[in-house]
Amino acid sequence: MVRLHRITTILLLIFAFQTSAQTTALLLQNIEQIIASENAVVGVSIIGPKAQDTLSINGGSHLPMQSVFKFHIALALLSEVDKGRFSLDQKININKADLLPGTHSPMRDKYPDGASLSISEILKYTVSSSDNNGCDILLRLIGGPQTVEDYFAKNNFKDFSIKINEETMHGEWEQQFRNWTTPIAASGLLSAFYDKHQTFLSTKSYSFIWKLMKETTTGPGRLKGQLPEGTIVAHKTGSSGSSKEGITAALNDIGIVFLPKGQHFVISVFVSNSKEDEKTNEKIIADIAKSAWDFFTAREE
User: pTM here?
Assistant: First the structure.
């Protein structure tokens, strides 16, 4: 009887795994149908609540990050806060010359002549509002893009490149491609810093960064675009604008979506080299997120 019970248990586990794999394949098929007719390169990586709920499309492709890299900068800076090199309450003097015109900067709009702001305030502008001036101020504070790269390399994160700041990225068109990641690497980073945060950040820094991510105001039509009102999404967007030929280099959103019954899934969507308009690019991301939401909420039931 004991042997029969063990065989039955093994068969049930095999059946459960095969069933999950089949349904995950259906989710993958749904996403492939979403992007099939779009004139764009779409990279997707999803990590679901269960270990086997992992899928990707163009998951290993090097795709431009744009402002997604502000999440990386914030994590690297918070690691220095945890070491005591900086504090969240520390004031930084921001001069008018630091607030470049012609770039997305709610901080500059509020303080056109400069201000003395805490690191926590600048991080909020940089992450939640995707402030480009705030980003470059923090990069100078921490030691530049190489410092950020070194931090993640030392912690064994791969498949990313952070070489330039926002000011340089908004110069020549080709510059933006120097900051890239892969969808799989982006989701892996999100998962590691959310689910295994004790390895990397203090409890205080962990709570702070995810609060900022949940308060993100940019890209409401992307990951959150078709999800039920009130759904909590901790995410970071990135956008490039379009070339003279009408090509969008990057329109991205990476984040963690929280399900009704307490579980969550990680999702990274990068829309690159797109000849579609902004509304269509955002809808691609929203459609993919909704497909994943429907799949995982049905599983919760």
Answer: 0.91
